[in-house]
Prior knowledge:
With 485 residues, the protein is of the alpha+beta class. It contains 13 helices and 20 strands. It is 34% helix and 24% strand. It is globular and about 100 Å long.
Amino acid sequence: MDIFSYFRNKGIDTLDPTFYRRIEVWRSWYNSNVRKFHRYKIYRGNGSSVNCTRYSLGMAKKVCEDMADLLLNEKVTITIADQATDKFVKDVLESNTWEELGNEYQEWKAALGTVAYVVHIKDATVDEAGNMTGGSVGINYVEAAHIYPTSWQNKVITECIFTFPKTYKRKKYVHLQYHKIEDVPGENRSQYVIENSVVENTAGAGTELTPEQWEEIPAFSGLAERIETGSDQPLFIIDRLNMVNNADEDTTNPMGVALFANAIDVVRKIDLEYDSYANEFSLGRKRIFVAPEMLTTHNGDAVFDPNDSVFYELPEDYFKNADSKEAIHEVNMELRIEEHSQAINDDLNWMSLKCGFGTERYKFEGGGVKTATEVISENSDMYRSLTKHELVLNRVLIQLVRTIIRAGISIGIPGLQENTDIIINFDDSIIEDKTTERLNDRQDVAMGAMGVDEYRAKWMGETLEDARKNLPEQFDNSGGGGVIH
């Protein structure tokens, strides 16, 4: 389906199609499957060529995996002050496989530049007054190729179309979900409206189905043509890397770029070097060239194993024109292992540096890539890059939590507080200087410059109110000082 032809027919403006071609280029490097690079031909003369597949270290995927693991892992905690709200949100996240898909889509974010989380209501009933009851809160995870902004300001996307491909009875369909802002008739306010449409994924712009037609397809049964949310807050959250998008001449483009977008030349060079390294062992294997008369005894028995590939039988007339009359000639090609390893390691440092990990993050050793596991300091390139990306992710996670709470309130879940305090604690276990900082805080508590409740809130990921409630009895819950051993 030509989605942009569909948009033109509908009068919908979005980003230029060339940017989405960039996304597919990033995807091909992430998959180590770049056309005319990882699959190529070598000319052999006489008009013939041989198809080849280039070996790859897969570094584009590797840096995305590492960034995802650093940004969102099992040590990242979401703390919500109100207990009932905290339980509800945690249940929603668990039922929507957040622990797995959250990390997976951080990797997709690093690979393609942008992802989105779209909160929706499942299986709710609507009464005559328009009130929803029952149902549950769901999260749709969307990667960059299916995100089409239609309105944005200061890189903040306010209106957007999300596409969800489906297949039914061997036919392909696309569900388009358009989130846009409209004025409420007769009222001085606006609200988000969601318009759904389904297109059969045929040639050209596709064939749009009527609501009656899509009702016959199980994946779209019960899908409302239009939903008025009644809220001026969106149900989608856009998540991108905190990097300038220099992949588009339009500097207002609100989408992100891949983590390795400006390191593709290095990825290409690494794969060239690794492919050459691997071919050293294939092309440089030992060969023994043997004259025909040396292959059998006078009784006709084979001297060498005919299935042994190390031996190569020379033609009978070879020695007529050869300078050497050696009946058995051994060839041992010299393997350039050190030269290849040094070249790959040099470029791994460049790759690491350009992707925000500093140098010495990766090392090519024993034919594979090893990752440094040591902790990092707070003045390192990696720490600064990580905290920069966490600024965006912190806002995204808080926004996701508040959107889930609003969705819960809309279906009548009792006791939810939208404006409760939300704290995101990222994994700082790899930060070398945190031990020193924690020791200094303990000394501040001992001298009365810092409260025990403040210390607990900071280091245990609690709100200040919860920290005071959870203090041991020997401390003054009013926030006084104390001694921490």
